[in-house]
């Protein structure tokens, strides 16, 4: 990659340079960690249903950095919560504007399963969304488990509060790690997301049969099935044929900044585009 002064720096060297939690904390405090948005598209209609909110680091020396360079430093619960809060605060501003002009998009935020065990997590989140003026039912939390989650009283209370207020839970990276069928029995998910690495092999014979089974499972449980990492038209058509509801990936849209997302959303709405320019 190129630095701002035109000199090249290897990914390994840059990771080593940034390998400091204090530097990440500073970046979070100074809002250098910014949201990028990747649209999720309905496979049947090609309509944008919502966006996943992803982290990027707007570094003063190295430019825009992907999570590859810093996400491994978000290694404890406090940092996970700070990252989530940083992206949520910025994402809600764009979400509120889109809602104010009649765009009903679901914004999906990634959380670690351990955050569901934090005292007061759900109540604080509901309050923040309400304060922003965004409908609660337009927020989805994509839950990833890096370690097994104990469903203690605090966790159950948080989940109950989220569901009561209309927020949705998505089981991220389904089929990997702790994101298993057992979790579908334990928690009230409304969506499951197929892992991008599995989607990359989705046209294989065994993978095809597995996706057919997962699609049938999703239908039987009234869950939306989303494929991540779709990169080709062939993958798109194959997944739709197998019963996948929606997808995201480079075939549709790369992650983009808020201003670009607005242009994409309003591209086929001349009146709203005119009002935005005025």
Automatic annotation (TrEMBL):
It comes from the Bacteria. SUPFAM superfamilies: EAL domain-like (SSF141868). It holds the Pfam family EAL. SMART domains: EAL. Residues 17-269 form the EAL domain. InterPro entries: Cyclic-di-GMP_PDE-like, EAL_dom, EAL_sf. This is EAL domain-containing protein. It comes from Pseudomonas kulmbachensis.
